[in-house]
Amino acid sequence: MNIKAIGGSNDVSDVFDLYDLRVKVVASEKPMVCDHQVGEYFDVIGEMIVFPEGGRNSFTLYPLAAILPLLPAKQRITNKNDWMTTDAVVACPDPHCGGRFHIARIATRSFSHAETTVVPLPGDSDETNESVLTDAHSTTD
Question: Is the model's pLDDT at 97 over the cut of 60?
Answer without folding.
Answer: yes
